[in-house]
Amino acid sequence: MADVSGSVRVYGLIAGMWIRSTLVYRTSFALALLVNFLVTALDFVVIWMMFSQATSLGGYSFAQTAFLYGTASVSFGITTFVLGSVDDLGMRVRDGTLDAFLVRPAPVLVQVAADRFGLRRIGRLLQGVLVLGWSLARLDVDWTPAKLLLMPVMLLSGAAIFGAVYVAGAAFQFWAQDAAEAQSAFTFGGVTLLQYPPTVFARDFVIGVTFVVPLAFVNWLPALYVLGRPYPLGLPWWLAFAPPLVAAGSCALAGLAWRAGVRSYRSTGS
Amino acid sequence: MGTSGASGTLRLYAAVVAGGFRRYATYRSATAAGVFTNTVFGFIVAYTYMALWDERPGLGGYDEAQALTYVWIGQALAQALSMFNAGFAVDMVARIRNGDIAVDLYRPVDLQLWWLASDLGRAGFQLFSRGVVPLTVGALCFPLALPGDPVVWLEFLVAVALAVVVSFAIRYVLALAAFWLIDGTGVLQFGGVVGMFFTGLLLPLNAMPGALGDLARVLPWAALLQMPADILLGARSGADGLLRAYAFQAGWAVVLLAAGRLLQSSATRKVVLQGG
Amino acid sequence: MTQDFTENFIDVEGVEKVFDVRRRAGLLRRERHQVRAVDSLTFSVPRGEMVGYIGPNGAGKSTTIKMLTGILTPSAGRLRVAGIEPSRERTRLARRIGVVFGQRTTLWWDLPLIDSYRLMHRMYRIPDARYRENLDRCVELLELGGLLETPVRQLSLGQRMRGDIAAALLHDPEVLYLDEPTIGLDIVSKAKVRGFLRDLNAERGTTVLLTTHDLTDIEQLCRRVMVIDHGRPMYDGELSGLHAFGDGERTLVVDLERELPPVQVESARVVKVEGPRQWLAFPAAQSAAPLVARIAAAYPLVDLSVREPDIEAVIARMYARAPSPERPGEAGAPVGR
Fold first, then answer.
1. CA angle, residues A19, A23, A26, in degrees to nearest 5
2. What is the distance in angstroms between the Cα of A188 and the nearest Cα belonging to chain C?
3. What's the CATH fold of domain C2-96+173-243?
């Protein structure tokens, strides 16, 4: 892990090139930023409309749901901002442009992560921050030091868990290059899921996103701790502080999947 | 199109339809991946609807079973109606950007009909390959209100066909905007985002409140999902309701296709003036 | 063994690459079968040599280069570049090699050319002085001076290729792999690229391995040429030796005193008659002297000349002879373009 700083440096170099490339087309950039903001803003409008028809959803108020929405969106926003087009890996594999990454003196994952880096993706993150801020202003949270500490830990661990899902999904594309869309079920599907209270979903579904793909640790468990609401499945309270561990575990597994994917690419040439 | 050689022309466009169908039929793992994703989204949205209809039974004139059916119809039709990606329009904008469109405009086939035929072929493939599985899974896992009468299914399929034409016509107009705007791709994305909202994929237009709901119900996107769903759910039963739904869809189809034609001829003039 | 490393910069021993290929057979069925893209390949390249690597599409050229750069892992055999096993230490090797991917540019499409070089400078951590010196040299010799501030998308194919070559050389690689460096270029650009590569090899001692379809590249640049087909090495040696390869036939052109029926002579056959002039084909490996003596003894000979076969024809014959059930460019080519 001595080359972490080297990796960050290379990431910055490549991302910088992409920023300059996109700024060549300024109006496109402005429109793309707007689209990114809007696409997420509109799914919050849907939640707003739901609450204009009902006072609560699964026993959660609008502000509480907005808190879940905000925390999930901020984590996911960080992930998509940093890992931009990792989910397009299949395309690079198919057209052979991945080869150029393999002859550079930098980790392939870092190069793929920075590939087609887009500042416009900050639109999604921004929208999440706004909703989170709004919900915090509306909520009457009984703040304790533990809860205050948990906020940044939750957002960053959540981003790391989503990141692991992204990387594992990308690794899968080394074998199935056209299957990029399956990944959306876990990424975009995942963030949509976490924007609603867990009480809305069937028990089996919640078990799946807690123990199989550990999305529940992105925001549900820590956020419910902050809100002071009971956990799903009768889980113990201290699991609210597990996200960093879950994130580390997920990232390790995703890293193994990625290695296996690269190894398969290098032995099949795809 | 002249009347002479009409059968030859018909054969040509039939071949284009078949080509569109086959082209998408080759992406097997992409199709499987898409079916999986649509199904997962179906589950997520279905649970949120159950929570909402728990609170507000009868919202938008639907009972809970109807609302759930709406969810799964939406997931089943999402690809056929190109709700997540603009499909052919992306290729078309690229051709406008690099100038290849000039060649298309001078070809002896009608540009709009050509793309329409190809898009119908694609939609035909995606309706069955990507529609059947999510709807079946939905029916197995949730209490859906699907009709047993085959006539209703037939009426539904007519509405879906009209919806595909409207969906095409919207994207055709958006794609042609690339002749005048630098950022054609951005326009498509913008149209896609706005379209997904006003199609009612996330919340039925019936259930949208106030003036926003009133507006959403008359925009062309209402012809895409709301109309076919209403027909299948029996919310527009009777010859009168059925005809009104068809008329709404056909009306928007005609208006938008005409608008596309108008833009196309003015684009052709522009290309001619610039010397291609 | 260790001596090999010091003597030979590239060492390839019995290397194989087998791909699993799935092909659609019928509507739903898929057949799996194995394709041997490279088969028992053995060669070595001493430091500073310039080698032409030729063969038809799908012969295994790209696969070989991908194994040499570490992009692909060999299925069997032993492979070393600068003493390093490429697939094991790909990233470490990356600093010591330069790769030009032919028609696929690695330059930044929308940005001025110089920006791509600045990225190389920093990514490879090239010392400033070294970078400046290498850049100046490439700019001068590849005539990139006026193009540094031009966005890459506005460059012509030839300019872009020169730009790509420069990008691959800024970090002083010990070996340069070029995949079709002159394809699609006009004559002037081709000449510039060839001249540059010749100088690079002569002055810096950079080892160069290039694949090409253009035999003029080989004739002008490489003393040594390797031919591969269906994954198997067909020839490795001096360019001149290629003429004598296998079925290669030379042509003896004889001018007789008058029009005569085709010459009847052992070990040669008449392929063309035009008035008193006749063309006789004879095995390239065979000396022309006894043949000439025999003809001179039996016919009224006025003049004669021996024509070397053209290389393309020789290689075409080599391909035609290759004992393989599958045609090149079909299933034999799961990688490459």
1. 145
2. 30
3. Rossmann fold (3.40.50)
